Amino acid sequence: MIYEHPLAYLLGLEGIALLRSFTGEYDRDFVDTLPVGVALDAACGTGRFAASLTERGHQILGVDSSPDMLARARERVPQGEFLLGDLHHLPVPDDAVDLVVCSLALTHVPALKPVMAEFARVLRPGGHLVISDIHPEGVARGVIPPVRRPDGQPGRLATYRHLTGDYMRAALPVGLQVRRCEGPRVPAVERPQPTDTPRASETIGPWEHWPWCLTALASEAARAANAGVPTMIVWHFQLTEHQP
């Protein structure tokens, strides 16, 4: 399946800022302050985050449910170990890693508690968990990347809105304490008024499948509607030395 991100159509320069947070530039700021050790990239995809962690000196484990994604991750980070698995049943021993990162995955699981319990299980006492995902406000607005199915038709991944309290209720009982939480927002950027309104034929389409492209016809309104809206939620948890 191919991701086609609607915000590329929607936000202009603001969209670039958001897309950067989607590719991990914001959540990496959380990781850069943490000690180097054994790091698990949970739902690692093609190994984007794993590659960044490797550059910072971490020993990498990656887990994903897609064999195709894992093949790409192995090509990208040949020194890492990548395993087929599920967030609910990580193929990793207890107390095995110093850091778990999970990016853009928890929006697609129906309940956070079993996943948080798995993260706590594989972390060593005092270990760290960094999660970045679409902000619940964005989920409510429908800001979820659509996918193009193998037959070329548009599709949607199953998506769930997890509120801030849901993360807390899932994390605290398993010994994960909050160290930091941020919600980066779409910046309000002053833009010059366009001299010409683009014709529908000049916008990115096909609009009947991807209606977000029509916002190019009202770009100022699109920017105003999204300025200041949280785009991501980024968490830093730490596992207590003595779990309850």
From TrEMBL:
Keyword Cell membrane attributed: no
InterPro entries per UniProt: Methyltransf_11 (IPR013216), SAM-dependent_MTases_sf (IPR029063)
Domain Methyltransferase type: 40-131
Highest taxon of the lineage: Bacteria
Keyword Zinc (UniProt): no
TM helices/strands, residue ranges: none
GO MF, any single term: S-adenosylmethionine-dependent methyltransferase activity
Keywords: Methyltransferase, Transferase
GO biological process, one term: methylation
Name the record gives this protein: SAM-dependent methyltransferase
Species this protein is from: Streptosporangium album
Classification of source organism: Bacteria, Bacillati, Actinomycetota, Actinomycetes, Streptosporangiales
